[in-house]
Amino acid sequence: MDEVRLEKLIEETLSTMDPVEVPKDLHFDAAKIMRLARMEEEAEAEKKPAPLSFMDRLRQAFQSRSMVRFAGAAAAFVVLLGVYGVWKSGSVPAPLPGNDPAQTAEIDDPGVPTTLPDNPIVVDDPVQTEDPVTPDVPDEPPAEDDPVVTPPHAVTPQQPVQSAENPKPPVVTPPAPQPPAAEPEEPVAEDEPPVEEEPGEVDNPTEYAGGNEIDPEEQIPDDETPAAPPEEQTGEETADPEENEFEILLEEALQDEAFAADFAAEDKGFGHNIVDVQDVPEGTEFMVYFYESEEEQLAGTVNEDDIRSILWKKESL
Amino acid sequence: MDFELKRTIELAKKGDEDAFSSLICRVQNSAYSVAFRYMENDADTRDVMQEAFIKMYRNLGSFKGDSSFETWFTRILINCCLDELRKRKHNAGWEDIDDHYDLADHEAGTEEQVLKKERQKAVTEAIRQLPDEARNIIILREFRGLSYEELADVLDLEPGTVKSRLNRAKQKLKEILLESLEQNSIWDV
After folding, report:
1. DSSP for B23-70?
2. Is the pLDDT of residue A307 over 70?
3. In angstroms, rounded to a whole number, what is the distance separating the alpha carbons of residues A157 and A142?
4. d(CA A193, CA A188)
5. Using the beta-carbon criterion (under 8 Å), do A36 and B54 form an inter-chain contact?
6. Across A65-148, where does the E strand assignment appear?
7. Which of A190, A306, B84, B173 stands the most exposed, by the fewest C-beta atoms within 10 Å?
């Protein structure tokens, strides 16, 4: 078949193609189409991503590899800069807490009150009163506020110094109470000037200017410690240093078996009170009064007529 | 664009169902004849027309009146048809169309009528194989009867190029039919 004839047939076929018969029932529901159109719009609106905020765009920008590299390099530079800065400032160490010169100057300034008010805090527990020479406010009567004047019966009984040979059970030896007559002899607590304490210093023994609280338990001296005389342990403010020396000497003397035996022979089991210690040609003479009862011990009464003399012979040293 | 059509379009934009229904009625018959040339069965034609009407409603705001409303809608309809055919090509759904024409063959009576139906089937098959642009111009010109100006408007072409495009489309159709001559004696007269 030649192409001309074929073209003619094609044209003829195209022109004689059966017309499309439109169905008579062709009908489209306008309402339904409009509803479907709205639904499509809503679905597309939901699928459409929300407009990016500035932070989102920034985040996307930083998610790129080049930006990550740049950020990493910048971070490394900042770290190196920080290390260099620390190294350079290392020659001038930062002041430690409490060593700050400014703070010290402030504390040293006499015009600046750095302590609690002058009114002392009365501590009922005499154990906490450690320093026997710590004065109270001179104006205040010691009988009212001073814990030192706590009646002897309120004092916690302390273990007295015992001889090594003394087989008796531990007898509570009260602190050497100061008889009323002896008070004028020991005005240390009231009349002595303050020692190692500046005006305005904290009177409360549980605190100091730094504000750190001192555990009262830590202030309780060990009973076995010979350096802590009973007078101190009881918190007696009028404790005589001479008596402390007596007790120390007694401790040394009790190491001597002969002296210890003599001492134990005189001991009545209610404690003792060393009235005096004197050096004599034969050795050291201890003038000791041995309490005869608990009441006497608690009252601290010394019977002058019953003071015993116990000699610590030199030969035995 | 006449005033009545413009008013109807404005009302349809605002959601007036009657106005939109009148717009559908205005174009549905001609749209069906065109869509049927693409889809070649009633059900698919109706489906694709509904899709075209949905797009028409959604895009009423973009209609400026530069062309006729029918031309504007035909453009939407052709795009819907081509989209649907592409989907079917993907899913190899041409068998339904062939079955449709097989049924038509059984309705034929005389030998001449059978031969005519066979030629129409061959031309339809050849048009189906045409590229989209050539197929559009053949269908709109030969079956829908659009003028060159209308073709240029619908296909967004220069009026001077429509005729040459139409000739090129027919030449392509002839080549396709010549390739099938040896297997088909319907052209031997």
Report:
1. HHHHHHHHHHHHHHHHH-SHHHHHHHHHHHHHHHHHTGGG--SSS-HH
2. yes
3. 22
4. 9
5. yes
6. none
7. A306
- Tell me which chain A residues have a C-beta less than 8 angstroms from the C-beta of B20: 30, 33-34
**pLDDT value at residue B180:** 73
Question: A50 — contact with chain B (CB < 8 Å)?
Answer: no
Half-sphere exposure of residue A122: CA atoms within 13 angstroms, side-chain side: 12
Q: How would you classify the pairing of strands A272-280 and A308-313?
A: unpaired
Asked if A7's CB is within 8 angstroms of B174's CB, the reply is: yes
Domain B94-189 annotated CATH 1.10.10.10: yes
Q: Measured between beta carbons, which residues in chain A are less than 8 angstroms from residue B123?
A: 10, 13-14, 17
The pLDDT tens digits of the residues spanning B32-64 come to: 999 998 888 899 999 999 999 999 999 998 888
Please report whether residue A13 resides in a domain. Answer: no
Model confidence, pTM: 0.45
CB of B187 within 8 Å of a chain A CB? The answer is yes
Helix pair B3-13, B17-39: axis angle to 10 deg: 100
Q: How far is CA A288 from CA A268, A307, A308, B146, in A?
A: 12, 6, 5, 145
